[in-house]
Design brief:
Layout: H1 3-22, H2 38-58, H3 80-96, H4 113-134, H5 143-156, E1 175-181, E2 187-193, E3 196-200, E4 211-215, H6 217-224, E5 236-239, H7 242-251
Parallel strand pairs: 1-4
Antiparallel strand pairs: 1-2, 2-3, 4-5
Helix pairs in contact: 1-3, 1-4, 2-3, 2-4, 5-6
Amino acid sequence: MNPAQHEAAVATETAALVTTITAADLSTPVPTCPDWTLEDLTRHVGSVHRWFTELLRRRIQQLPTSREVDLRLPGHPDALPNWLAASAAEAAEVFAATDPDAPMWAWGVDQHARFWVRRMLFETLVHRVDAELALGLTPHVDRALAVDGIDEFLTNLPFAFPFAPLTARLRAPDRTLRFSCTDGDEAWTVRLRPDGFALVADDAEPRAADATVRGSAADLLLALYGRLDHRNEAFHLLGEADLPAHWFAHSAF
């Protein structure tokens, strides 16, 4: 997917989340985000939108020393859906005024403005899924989005330690774990070493993986984010059973 598609998908995913929460009791617990209610989830997503938008507006070139931003939170929870919609609208305006190839600091691999748009997209998508699950709905994740989201997650996870400290335990004596789509030919291989882990190109890893998790792109994405147990019947596990268990115990954020 390209930056323009990411921008459009942010709007689509946010609109879906707004629709879901507008008719809901915002005091509803969100099981996939322990200790959160739908109100907490909505505040979080809108706050992320406004923070990322501010980073893009400022074209930051180094790690911010402060996360202070005017969130303009409403005084009553009932106004949160409209506030979230306004957050996305403001983000869209900044997207339109921003060159996605503009150099920027980012915590992940891609040091360009497009990093933050893509990150906003999957932050929104996953929490839209959280809201739907909390309300007993069956989420749908577009396959193209899921494939792109898997790539984004696995590419950036090695750099996520500041807010995902358990990733420091993703170490192993040269083991490989592959995630493979059953609804397409995409696959991603992660190599775990004593000093860390990283996504590797399959053509650079000709040997068979030590363990493989096979499932649809959407299910793999939700598993990577800890929203679906890898032992679910949706997945077919091959090879060393302890390697996927070790991965999923320390990788979600």
